[in-house]
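ARCHIVE CARD
Drawer: 12
Card no.: 0347
Subject: one protein chain, sequence and derived structure
Cross-reference: see card 0346
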Amino acid sequence: MTPAGGAPATLRDVALRAGVSMATVSRVLADNYPVAQRTRQRVLRAIKDLDYVANTHARALRGRGTPTVAFVLNDVRGASFASVAHGVEQEAARRGRICLICTTQGDPERELSVVRTMREQGAGAVILIGGVVDDAAYRGQMTAIAHSLDASGSRLVLCGRPPLGPDVPATVVEYDNEGGAYAVVSRLLAQGHRRILFLGAAANGSTTAAGRLAGYRRALADHAVAVDEALVVATEFSRADAYEKLTARLRQGRDFTAVCAVTDTVAAGALAALGDRGLRVPEDVSLTGYDDVDPATDLRPQLTTVHVPYEEVGRTAVRLALGLRAGEVSSAAQHAVLGTHVVIRDSTAPPPARQGPSAPAGEPA
């Protein structure tokens, strides 16, 4: 815990907690002078207990360098997150900031390590993006990080993640996952589809997949169509896994006329699986995606999908976080939800007339 009043811990606080001199603490931090092992352990324990940040380097950066904004994501190769990164960089540059992009490969521990490093280096904002498992452990961890960043003069920003609570000093920029899925499934229902397979339900409870699945379920309910759990198929957010999971599902027989994919990348895997089973899109099976990133227009046919304003997500994240510090944006305006909308292309059509009982795809009915 930090000292009373929420102020960041100092070198003196650590020395008092460990019962050593400030010079000894400095030696442990610099690791450039022999220190007895038991003394070193006491100092390290005090640093951890006080959540102490050794900010000499941060002060040096503030004194002679350009202030930074950190953008932390799983992987830079994803088109959607790359678009967010572009928006972050644009707004950061407009405000005279350097954008640092850090990847975690989906490792929560690495994410924590990166956040701590960015705090030490005095980043004006630390922006995290990507679906999470929204449980008590995650909320407790993020709440502690938010308070720690706030005490050091930085700001935690959550993109595409739910808010942590009214008393947590964090900026939240969401996009309407549920509303977008509701809209695209409603379009399929309006075309006459009643057996719509949802491809991409997350087995681990990711908030992104959960929101989109909720929109799918709500659209069916509002059109008086019962949800068949056999039509909800879990996949990773990858082309390869989507291909594998839909191929396996098709071997059981095709009892659906449309596929609603959780992302455009998942839709690309679905398109390949359908094609390899001799099924045409949209003549035999309609297909929709989500995100409206490069695969949507690269595919043939071009994909009907849900547009997410990813670049605007990035710009809004920087504008709200830095605007709060500059007095341009109020603390009451630190939660934004950006709208999504359906982009109609060539991959959907009314369902074909039933010509016989369902059979495994690629076999005669």
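Annotation on reverse: Confidence is low (pLDDT under 50) at residues 56-65, 355-365. DSSP finds 13 helices and twelve strands in the chain.
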